[in-house]
Amino acid sequence: MKKRKIGFVSFIIALWLCALWYSVLRTDSKDLMWIYNWFLDITLSIDDEIRDNSVRCWAFQVAWNDFVEDINATTQSKVFDWLSKRGFDLDQMAQGNTYYNKFWLFTLDLKSEIEKEVKDKFDENINLKFLSNWSIVPQSSDYYEWKKEKKYGIYSKFNRLINLKNSFEKLDDWSFANVYDDVRYFGVNCDSNKKYDNVRVLYYNSDVDFAISIKTWGWDEIILSRWTRWKTFMVTYNLILSKERGYIGGHDFTKYDCLKIPEFNLKFEKEIYKLKDQKLLGTGGKVYRVGIAEQDVEIKLDRSSWDKKGKNLIDSLQLWDRYHYFDFDEPFMIFVKEYGKDLPYFAAQVSDVKLFQ
């Protein structure tokens, strides 16, 4: 009888948690963004293995490599294997006004300095929340002067609003992965009778295996792909380029093509738990430890970022024997890179689209 009662209570609790989780994902309230971000997997390097709803932004890796170089330390943990690689550096990123990196001895002075400099650079007030009890943090770097072990704080911020070259159409809300039925989309209707010359077809092997590239007004190029099996972002990115090179079809986006893309508005502020308290060794027996590491990212891609831009539409003269449906209403990959650069500065694997809207 007691076991039956415990089982019933467990079932009720599980049912309540499922209902709560469902209601959280259905809401559009940004007040719940902290819950959304808890389920994002932040990868530190383009070579890290990824899973569903993974995000990778270049800025933290650059900050980390600058930090290790500055203190002249060697890393011992496997956590650093991919992060310390210099596959991506500042040569891949020309727009320095969109990011901010800071590292130094972990003190209250560092916290105040970061908050002031972010305000000056982005006109944004931030309140670093990655530590609940700041009373245990020393005020200044003087605290570490005679200590053999020194703690460092690392902070990285990336803020990018992507303006596309054309004003796409706002499409009706639609489903995603047979889970939601109220996802916001933009793109090109099948009956629009127009060609968007900022969209380039990389390849179209089937209605579940295709990729496109979208031009922007600025320095960015956006690559969207489905369905590509992933292991790392780098493997997936190279596979997309390989499929593009082997594609014998046309690369123009014509009036017989349709495009459906979910609005993309990602904002998260996360502590990198993988690095917390990790030890680094310096010369002369010095020991360095990561006191805290945080990544702050905001990247926006939706109609509001470009619907006041001028249109550049031309009629299509090329005929196709069938429609091409570029529908990103199932899990997909997104890469963003600067023109003329080899590697993307941002990548995401989207399985649960509500985490990204």
At the first level of CATH, what is the class of the largest domain? Mainly Beta
Largest sheet, strands/sense/barrel: 7 strands, mixed
- Number of individual domains: 2
What name does the CATH topology of the largest domain carry?
Answer: Alpha-1-antitrypsin, domain 1
Q: Report the order of strands and helices.
A: HHEEHEHEHEEEEEEEHEEEEEEEE
Distance between the termini: 47 Å
- Overall average residue pLDDT: 77
- Estimated share of beta-strand residues: 25-35%
Shape: elongated
Radius of gyration: 23 Å
The helix-and-strand class reads: alpha+beta
Strand arrangement in the largest pleated sheet: 1-2-19-18-11-10-9
Task: Write up this protein.
The protein is α+β, with helices and mostly antiparallel strands and 357 residues long. The chain folds into 2 domains: 1-33; 39-357, Roll (Alpha-1-antitrypsin, domain 1). The protein is 22% helix and 33% strand. The protein is built from 6 helices and 19 strands. The strands form 4 sheets. Strands 1-2-19-18-11-10-9 form a 7-stranded mixed beta sheet. Strands 3, 4, 5, 13, 14 and 15 form a 6-stranded mixed beta sheet that branches. A 4-stranded mixed beta sheet has the order 6-7-12-17, with no helix packed on it. A hairpin with a 4-residue loop joins β10 and β11 (220-226). It is elongated. The N and C termini lie far apart (47 Å).
Question: Helices and strands in order, then pairings?
Answer:
Elements: H1 2-26, H2 33-38, E1 41-42, E2 54-57, H3 58-71, E3 74-75, H4 80-83, E4 99-105, H5 108-122, E5 149-161, E6 169-176, E7 180-188, E8 195-196, E9 199-206, E10 209-215, E11 220-226, H6 233-246, E12 257-262, E13 264-271, E14 279-281, E15 287-301, E16 313-314, E17 324-327, E18 332-338, E19 346-350
Parallel strand pairs: 1-2, 5-15, 12-17
Antiparallel strand pairs: 2-19, 3-14, 4-5, 6-7, 7-12, 8-16, 9-10, 10-11, 11-18, 13-15, 14-15, 18-19
